[in-house]
Amino acid sequence: FAASSSGSSFVYDYYGSLPSCMLIRRDIFIRLAEKMYSLYPYPIQKLLMAASVEGIYVERIHESMPKPAMKDPYLLVPTASNGILRAKTEERKKILVITHELSWTGAPLVLAEACKEVLKPAGYEMLVVSPKAGPAASRFLEQGISVLTVPEILSTESRLLCELIHPYDMVIVNTIVPFAVIRLLNELKKPVLWWIHENELMYHGIAEHLPVQLKEHMHVYCVGPYALNVLKRYCNNYNAQSLIYGLKDQNPSRQFWYTTSKKSLRFATVGSLVSLKGQDVLIKAVSLLREDVREKCEFLFVGKVDEEAILATIKEAEKAYPGQVSYIGQVARDILDTIYPDVDVIICPSRYDCMPTYVAEGMMYGKPVICSENTGTAPIVQEMGAGLIYSDNDPCKLAEAITEFVEFSDETRQKYAQRARVCFEERFRLDGFRQKLLQIMDEIMAQEVFE
What we know:
7-stranded parallel β-sheet; 6-stranded parallel β-sheet; 17 helices; about 35% helix; about 15% strand; elongated
């Protein structure tokens, strides 16, 4: 380490994910060292983190340092001030977006919708970072939003994360899974929007790693009251608010409602095959139906396999009830748009689920809902009269709700369908979400943050 007589804090040469060496003023080095948890050794990434916490500006040079300069006891480096006030709001348009995966599941998809339909048209430039590649990446790429996958990016010792964060005006973190990122960002002077989608089970093993307190630059939003209440149980010091996602309307003509009697009703559930999503609860309910009721039903299961036991349960039901139970695997979002019109009722049998996306998508197409009470959507569905709610994750009660819907008249089912569409328009339409999200972005960006 060498002192510098210029105004710069420090400078280093940059060859990849980390600098190979660092030149730093001795007084600044001592000040940072005093704040570090361990005295020796001094990993460069820890110095970078400590510098960011202190609001010290870092200057990079991509060329090798001149040999004559390296012989001098003091290296003159380009001047940089020691606490640059961020630019005005209208100039701050670069966002680093961090998500735990890019699968065809709810949280990555609603994040993609927010970036693609709201932030990109508003002029924000974004880089999306994830430890895993996945099909949802196409949702960003088709709109010219860059995607970077780095396997270790969410780890506590990520060497690249501090470097990635530096040039961006703001960071959006999706879900609680990137808890190490949240711990880091809590110590950096960079505005953060943290969007939380998790149910209670997801906090097990993660809650203990989340910060006890969040600093003023950390802004927490949950996808509705259910997710908000769960967060409060584990992190009651957080000042969090509700931000329910919005979806682009794929059915603006409001078609696909019931018009005539049907010989059988088609029920569908969409989501990864895991016990959390309760597909086994639905299969049990199917087995409990009276035979005359079951003969009037078709049950469609859509989703990737995460638990083989759930798949085995569905396959057994396919054999037991041929033509009445079917599984088609995981499909892309645009394929779902061809499936929903042929569905009569959406069933959400989740044991825990904050705000399942496919329920809102189904209501977009005017599909009534049979929903577990243990979801964030249930109170909305109940309030809007868009379907039936069953309790206790009980297959018997789910079977009763299915039977009730089968025995409804066409007129009653039509009313439920109409109310489902109204529920989508009032609670999940993109326009309302856009307005709220952009207002949040303006408020966050308006903060004066030194870095």
